[in-house]
């Protein structure tokens, strides 16, 4: 019997109808004799709304109290999903961060997980229950609630997968994998079937809002495969692991307004490709300030904002 960890983001649990889709995905995997642990984010834009409400009361809300407030979003999600699953005839239990044994340091709003005591989780799994855990939160040595920062539910999921020695960690969202570029900026992007941990870290570090960087670091350290998939269709996703031995350029990312990064394995040895990129820059009279090339990334800083058509030219040259 495999242990699977499934994480659903805020857009996946935004309302009751979407919660029903999530519940069915969980049930489908549970019926295959898997032990299922589910990590959920707050519904929709709940966290943003809570931050706005806090700042409407105080220009500088107390950090401890802000974490107490922000953690309530995930607690609403876990309770509603557990209520739904139980109503559908599948025994489940919701656990907050502290109930799940997620121990962090004392930093508020950007806490780091230091240890997970999975005793309670394992006890509930042995009873045949689906365990639903609040992402984004833990507790510290003072027994105060802490939160992990933006995207922290991804980190919760991979950390729980590590503690349980899970076979896979699924990250479900409203997109069905990692693409060769941002589809909102580049027309002809393609979905990637696989990435290395290192490539995913580079993509995250350059500002692509795909996965929380810390979750990829944990997955790489403990060799937990991450599968990114869509909640809303059955398309194959992207597998992130360490088993790829190939020299391939994977993705183009535009960070802020003046940096373009090209990520992939073996870039530093691909002299022909580097020359093609420099030819595009020269032909379009772009003023380059700095260019850094490493084993897995080219980062180019420009004096002025780079339009999306240039990004598309580079993307099409790669793919």
Explain how this protein is built.
Helix 1 links the parallel strand 1 (3-8) and strand 2 (35-40). This protein has 2 domains: 3-174, Acetylglutamate kinase-like (Carbamate kinase, 3-Layer(aba) Sandwich), CATH 3.40.1160; 249-318, 2-Layer Sandwich (Alpha-Beta Plaits), CATH 3.30.70. The mean pLDDT is 89. 36% of the residues lie in helices and 24% in strands. Helix 1 (16-30) packs across helix 3, helix 5 runs parallel beside helix 7 and helix 8 packs antiparallel against helix 9 (308-318). The strands form 4 sheets. It has an 8-stranded mixed sheet, with helices on both faces. Strands 13-14-16-15 form a 4-stranded antiparallel sheet, with helices on both faces. With 319 residues, it is α/β, with parallel strands linked by helices. It contains 9 helices and 16 strands.
Secondary structure elements and their pairing?
Blueprint: E1 3-8, H1 16-30, E2 35-40, H2 46-57, H3 63-87, E3 92-95, E4 102-104, E5 113-116, H4 119-126, E6 130-134, E7 137-139, E8 145-147, H5 152-164, E9 168-173, E10 194-196, H6 197-205, H7 213-222, E11 226-230, E12 238-241, E13 249-255, E14 259-264, H8 271-283, E15 288-293, E16 297-302, H9 308-318
Parallel strand pairs: 1-2, 1-9, 2-6, 3-6, 9-11, 10-12
Antiparallel strand pairs: 4-5, 7-8, 11-12, 13-14, 14-16, 15-16
Helix pairs in contact: 1-3, 2-3, 5-7, 6-7, 8-9
């Amino acid at each position: 019997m495999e242990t699977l960890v499934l994480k659903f983001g805020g857009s996946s649990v935004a309302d009751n109808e979407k919660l029903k889709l999530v519940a069915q995905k969980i049930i489908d995997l549970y019926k295959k004799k898997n032990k299922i642990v589910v990590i959920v984010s707050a519904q929709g834009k709940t966290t943003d709304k809570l931050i706005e409400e806090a700042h409407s009361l105080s220009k500088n809300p107390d950090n401890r109290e802000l974490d107490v407030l922000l953690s309530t979003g995930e607690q609403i999600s876990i309770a509603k999903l557990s209520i739904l699953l139980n109503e559908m005839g599948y025994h489940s239990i919701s656990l907050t961060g502290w109930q799940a044994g997620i121990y962090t340091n004392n930093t508020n709003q950007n806490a780091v997980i230091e240890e997970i005591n999975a005793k309670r989780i394992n006890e509930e799994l042995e009873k045949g229950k689906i365990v639903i855990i609040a992402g984004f939160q833990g507790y510290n040595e003072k027994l105060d609630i802490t939160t992990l920062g933006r995207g922290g539910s991804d980190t919760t999921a991979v950390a729980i997968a590590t503690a349980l020695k899970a076979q896979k960690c699924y990250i479900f969202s409203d997109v069905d994998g990692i693409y060769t570029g941002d589809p909102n900026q580049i027309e002809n992007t393609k979905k990637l079937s696989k990435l290395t941990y290192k490539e995913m870290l580079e993509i995250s570090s350059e500002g692509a809002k795909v996965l929380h960087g810390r979750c990829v670091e944990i997955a790489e350290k403990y060799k937990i495969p991450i599968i990114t998939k869509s909640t809303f269709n059955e398309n194959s996703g992207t597998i992130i692991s360490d088993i790829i031995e190939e020299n391939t350029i994977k993705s183009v990312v535009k960070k802020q307004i003046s940096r373009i990064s090209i990520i992939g394995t073996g870039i530093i040895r691909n002299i022909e490709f580097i020359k093609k990129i420099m030819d595009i820059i020269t032909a379009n009279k772009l003023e380059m300030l700095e260019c850094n090339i490493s084993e897995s990334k080219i980062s180019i800083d420009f004096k002025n904002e780079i339009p999306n058509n240039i990004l598309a030219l580079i993307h099409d040259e790669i793919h």
